[in-house]
Design goal:
heterotrimer; A alpha/beta; B mainly alpha; C mainly alpha; A: alpha/beta; Rossmann fold; six-stranded mixed beta sheet; C: two-stranded antiparallel ribbon; two-stranded antiparallel ribbon; 4 strands; 4% strand; globular
Chain lengths: 405, 320, 298
């Protein structure tokens, strides 16, 4: 972690105020909490997972965000950025409370977060109530930019369905007749699969069977046996992280690889190809995602080089999403000349912003979800090679589902 | 033990502080205090099981979360539910669930009881996590907090955090009073007798199973009250409200405060909240500190914080 | 479901069950003999898997890694018993639960500090890398069969150790009457330390041999822990036979729960509620025999 200064909304405020309160109590009075105004700085609340399974993602997002800010000298529209970090532990039970700590306790100007979609649901609750400006750099729950959409909420990543939809479109165009889907029984997986099914059915494809297993169970053997006996033309899956690595290896070990083609949302093959045995098991698998390491634009190459230099790490899709979150915020701040209190003005500018991202240029939909190209990628060695655009400027789930549209 | 005068003075100061809090403190602290009080209700209900009846449950969050879910499910999407119907439904739901689960788990004892309660909690977690009846893994919102309108009169408004704080404060005191009364009654003496020696109580002619079940249902209902209030405060419920980590945290608060007393749970809930904030401020590996602290408490502070100041307070470790 | 698919699913269930047995047996031994409930048992499964990964990189072979890992975890187990666990023998189960819950947090965070939060894979040894083709689309990895064989061998060894050896006799006597055994001049402290270390090593060993098929990832211990609790409750605490029966039952129920489709009144009960099947099985067993299938009467 850069600057090593790990502070957080509620707890930082708590410690600060505890000192104030302590001295006040010595005088025999219960002092009201004193919030120091720091007019010259813009307070950015980073509510991300810094511990547990998703810690790496949280760090990548923060790295990307800071990099974008540093590129403009650490200042946006003449105002310095102050970070208030909070570890959300990917714990939905604490989500509203944690978001509230940042918004009410620390009075951040903008709340950036998070990875886990259950935690995101809690953030949405708070930012809708308080009206604080919010940018989500990952969690893809469809509802955020459909039924729950709100003027002060933006997303710089993707909607779960948006990543599944193009794969269904591609397979339908290839005249694949039937498919089996498989995912964990949780919202992200089901929304991704539903996006796939939507496009696949529209193109005339048929779903033979929807298979699921309880999250985060990774005992796939019985489901693989079922797939082998169903013999579909294609299998679409949504898995990520450790589960994805295990699934890819199990699929190969069960002898299904090469017999029944496997497709997935890009998370299936992202960040796992360096794991021994996985690259071989994943070789040739096609996935769709809004980013791929090999996008050959000057912007992407410069981004990758600079990120690798700064953090001694290769950037991933999460770093890109974090980077874009900062670029989006900067666009808003510049439009109001740093007057962060002018939320309306910032929102108007952010809605119109065209983001020059490592993933390619994109803009906001009316529902505040990226309208972006979804790439078709193929695993070659340890790289997700971009082999084409599966869906150009895709707006899915359609922004028309949002009341603002 | 401190003299009666000192105790009264301390209690009086505490009462003044609790009542004055919303008038002097920032919203953040009022909400923090509200959360602590809700947790205190949860831990007190757990204490009835663990500290008084000797039933170490590792699935108590199931009732807490279930009541929260009931409120979320009966709240119309963009309208408010009535407090006077939703609260009784949520409490009755928790009570019924406790009755069903209690009937099964109370057939076991000791270590089986711990494992069985844990497993039932996990089962409930999966019911809400895996199905779409209540938003699956992301949980479900309560857009509008329940209203307390009664015959056109609105005694208090949950949308105002100060009102809500006072309601929770009254609820906490109410739960305390109810438990105090029960524990001082003949019923209370029987359940403590069961903890000390169930065999003897049975040979004295008490139908111990029924007593334990009554305790289990009462504790489940009170946990439901806490869960209902938590759902009102946070406006969102999700499967983790039912899970194993909350149950374990509840036990930790109980031990830290001092079980077998009714003040212990309140102290424990407050102390854990403060500790979490402090640990998180020290290091990003704060879970390491928390884990180490838990180990330490078990080893050196078995009677909890209250055991430090009071000799007669906390319950003795039955084997130790 | 066709017959051959059905049979393969049975094989899947048994194979998964055998691995569960290996983890659960350590839990049940430590409880049955020492009266200690160890929530951190799942953490040792995770530690084993991470050790297999990191040691096999340094030593260049999984077999050597497992050997070194077992030695290491036995030492860790003994140290833990000496430092913490032996303070818990006369304490309520509640304190055992809490202390070991604290250990879960410590181990999970230490894992993050030492090994990071990345996912890792462990290569299957070449001589076990093949697959046996069962149908035209499905093959069965030899390594999975090998795991099953190892689990079976260990189960038999454990049974013999407890029933037929002097150590086993001391163990059984210690479980029955700690004070009497001690008065006979047997160092019960040492016996307990060995048992605890054995339990830790069993969980870690299960994590190590499972690592090549399960991958290595954060949080992997917790899901195993809860399933093992169910196994132990069903089988009867302290019983090796019970752990075996419970594990195989759970393996089968889990396997079929995910693939069988059951509709009741238009609601897809299975696989919609596949996550709850093992708990339902446990509820049924609790109603029928609260002490578990092979447990001693309470």
């Amino acid at each position: 972690m850069k600057e090593g200064n790990f502070r957080s909304g509620g707890r930082r405020k708590f410690l600060q105020d505890a000192a104030v309160l302590g001295s006040a109590a010595a005088l025999g009075a219960l002092a009201p909490a004193i919030v120091r105004a720091q007019a010259q700085k813009v307070k950015v609340g980073l509510m991300l997972p810094y511990s547990g399974t998703y810690a790496q993602l949280g760090i990548a997002i923060e790295n990307g965000f800071r990099m974008a800010i540093e590129e403009s000298g650490g200042k946006i529209a003449g105002r310095e950025i102050e970070y208030v970090k909070l570890d959300d532990e990917s714990n939905p039970a604490k989500a509203t409370d944690n978001a509230n700590k940042l918004v009410t306790g620390d009075k951040v100007d903008v709340l950036v977060g998070t990875v886990h979609s259950g935690v995101q649901a809690g953030i949405i609750k708070i930012v809708r109530e308080t009206g604080v400006l919010h940018i989500s750099p990952n969690a893809g729950l469809n509802a955020m930019t459909t039924t729950l959409c709100a003027p002060n909420m933006f997303r710089t990543s993707f909607a779960n369905g948006q990543v599944g939809y193009p794969m269904g479109k591609v397979l339908a165009e290839r005249r694949v007749k039937n498919a089996v889907t498989l995912t964990w029984k949780y919202a992200a997986g089901e929304e991704s699969v539903n996006g796939f099914k939507d496009a696949f059915a529209k193109g005339g494809g048929k779903i033979v069977r929807d298979l699921t297993l309880p999250f985060p169970n990774v005992e796939f053997q019985s489901l693989l046996t079922e797939i082998a006996s169903l013999k579909p033309d294609a299998v679409y899956v949504f898995f990520a992280g450790g589960g994805a690595a295990k699934f890819l290896r199990d699929y190969q070990a069960a002898g299904l690889k090469g017999k029944i083609p496997l497709y997935g949302a890009g998370f299936l093959t992202d960040g796992v190809l360096e794991v021994p045995g996985v690259a071989a098991a994943a070789e040739g698998i096609e996935t769709t995602l809004h980013y791929g390491e090999g996008i050959e634009t000057a912007k992407n190459q410069a981004f990758r080089l600079s990120y690798a230099k700064t953090y001694k790490l290769q950037p991933d899709v999460y770093a890109v999403q974090g980077y874009d979150a900062a670029v989006l915020l900067a666009a808003g701040l510049k439009a109001v000349k740093g007057d962060v209190a002018n939320t309306k003005g910032m929102i108007a500018a952010m809605e119109k912003a065209e983001i020059d991202s490592p993933r390619g240029r994109w803009r906001m939909s009316k529902a505040h979800n990226p309208v972006q190209d979804l790439y078709l990628r193929k695993v070659v060695g340890t790289e997700n090679k971009v082999i084409g655009v599966a869906a150009k400027a895709l707006d899915y789930p359609p922004a028309s589902l949002c009341k603002m549209a | 033990m401190a003299s009666r005068g000192v105790r009264l003075a301390v209690l009086g100061a505490l009462a003044v502080a609790l009542v004055a809090l919303p008038f002097v403190a920032d919203k953040f602290y009022v909400q923090l205090a509200t959360k602590v009080l809700i947790l205190a209700i949860f831990v007190m209900s757990l204490d009835l099981l663990v500290g008084y009846t000797g039933l170490a449950s590792l699935g108590h969050a199931a009732f807490y979360g279930f009541a929260g879910y009931l409120l979320a499910l009966i709240t119309p999407q963009y309208e408010a539910a009535s407090l006077w119907t939703s609260l009784p439904i949520a409490l009755a739901g928790s009570a019924l669930l406790a009755l069903v689960i209690g009937t099964m788990v109370l057939r076991t004892s000791g270590i089986y009881f711990i494992m069985a309660t844990l497993a039932f909690g996990e089962m409930l977690f999966h019911v809400f996590h895996d199905t779409s009846i209540a938003g699956g893994s992301d949980g479900i919102y309560i857009y509008v907090r329940p209203v307390a309108t009664i015959f056109g009169w609105l005694p208090f408004d949950f949308e105002k955090f100060t009102h809500f704080y006072f309601v929770v404060l009254v609820a906490t005191l109410g739960v305390y009073a109810v438990l105090r009364n029960i524990l001082d009654s003949p019923f209370g003496r029987v359940i403590v007798g069961i903890r000390v020696n169930e065999q003897r109580m049975r040979s004295l002619g008490y139908h111990t199973f029924r007593y334990k079940l009554a305790c289990f249902v009462l504790a489940g209902t009170l946990a439901g009250l806490a869960g209902y209030l938590a759902a009102v405060q946070f406006g969102v419920v999700n499967p983790d409200m039912l899970g194993f980590h909350l149950s374990a945290s509840g036990l930790m608060m109980l031990i830290l405060g001092g079980m077998g007393t009714l003040v212990g749970p309140v102290i424990g809930a407050a102390a854990m909240m403060v500790l979490e904030l402090v640990f998180q401020g020290i290091s990003e590996h704060w879970l390491l500190l928390m884990g180490g602290f838990i180990v330490l408490v078990v080893l050196v502070l078995p009677h909890g914080l209250i055991g430090i100041v009071s000799r007669r307070g906390a319950r003795e470790d039955p084997h130790g | 479901m066709e017959l051959d698919t059905f049979l393969i699913q049975v094989l899947n269930g048994v194979q998964y069950g055998l691995l569960l047995f290996l983890v659960a047996s350590g839990l049940t031994l430590v409880f049955g003999i020492m009266g200690i409930i160890n929530l951190a048992h799942g953490s040792f499964y995770m530690i084993g898997a991470y050790l297999a990964w990191s040691l096999s990189q340094h030593l260049g072979s999984l077999a050597l890694a497992i050997l070194a890992g077992v030695v290491l975890t036995v030492l860790i187990g003994m140290a833990l018993e000496w430092l913490l666990i032996n303070k818990l023998y006369h304490r309520d189960h509640l304190y055992q639960v809490l202390l070991t819950y604290g250990l879960i947090l410590v181990f999970e965070e230490l894992r993050g500090v030492i090994w990071g939060n990345d996912v890792h894979g462990v290569a299957i040894p070449e001589w076990l890398g093949a697959s046996i083709r069962l149908t035209d689309t499905l093959a069965y990895p030899v390594y999975r069969l090998w795991i099953s064989a190892v689990c079976l061998v260990l189960a038999v060894l454990m049974y013999l150790l407890i029933q037929r050896t002097r150590l086993g006799m001391m163990i059984r006597a210690g479980a029955a009457n700690r004070e009497m055994v001690q008065s006979l001049g047997i160092n019960i402290q040492l016996v307990y330390r060995v048992i605890f270390a054995l339990g830790v090593a069993l969980a870690a060993f299960a994590g190590m041999i499972a690592a090549p098929v399960s991958s290595v990832f954060p949080g992997m211990g917790n899901q195993v822990l809860i399933i093992c609790f169910v196994v132990v409750v069903i089988g009867g605490i302290g019983s090796i036979k019970g752990a075996m029966a419970g594990a195989i039952l759970i393996g089968l129920v889990d396997t079929f729960g995910k693939v069988v489709e059951v509709d009741i009144g238009g609601f897809r009960v299975l696989p919609e509620l596949a996550g709850t099947t093992i708990y339902l099985l446990m509820a049924v067993v609790l109603l029928w025999r609260p002490e578990g299938i092979f447990g001693k009467r309470l």
